[in-house]
Amino acid sequence: MGYRQFKSKLARVIYDDEVVDADCEKLFHCDWHKANSACALVERGKAVMFKYREWELVFKQYHRGGLAGRLVEKSYLYSRLPNTRVWREFNMLRAMRELGLPVPRPVAARCVSLPPLAYRGALITERVPDSRTLTQVLCDRPVDNAQWSKLGALIARFHQKNVYHADLNASNILLTGSGDFYLIDFDKGSIRNSLSRQDADANVARLRRSLDKLQKRHSEFHFSEDNWQALESAYRAAVAD
Length: 241
Hints:
Layout: E1 3-7, E2 11-16, H1 30-36, E3 47-52, E4 55-64, H2 66-72, H3 85-98, E5 106-114, E6 118-126, E7 131-133, H4 134-140, H5 145-160, E8 163-164, E9 173-176, E10 181-183, E11 190-191, H6 197-217, H7 225-240
Antiparallel strand pairs: 1-2, 2-5, 3-4, 4-6, 5-6, 7-9, 8-11, 9-10
Helix pairs in contact: 5-7
């Protein structure tokens, strides 16, 4: 049991054979999702929740191509498959789980060649049971300061393991019914040899900006300066250890 790979005419697939098997490529097709999930349209960057066998899974599709892709990378597909966003996120999730960090289980990834220079990718992860984003929770109810402190300490754990989250915002944090936090969506993130204090602080500042924006956007949004002080104090104490 473990991670396996296979190659079709234009695609490469990696998958966790404890969850799916070699016929898992069908799970990456829009027609399959239209027929087997509540989502009528699969859009790039939008998560689709679906059930396969006994597993609750999440599908995310994204791609790199066009002018931006050509400017950033002249030639990378397949000869440099590990550098594609989808492969990097899949393997980053694997590595973080090995480090004991609370992130979704990676189930499968697919990278499709779009000659001559572009690719399209999609990622499937296990859905974190009984969870909602922090954004959804705060639109509904307050989170007590003990939980904010727990979140601050958790972010510190990621940083102590040299994990950089490229977009740490309230919608990329999950809170379960039992009070556990998970971080999600590590597209463009990285596990570095050493995470600088500047980049770690930028992660925390990014989260604060997202909370402030959400508070302005929603008439009912349960976030206060006191909450932030609880998070930041726990974070600073944890990174100082």
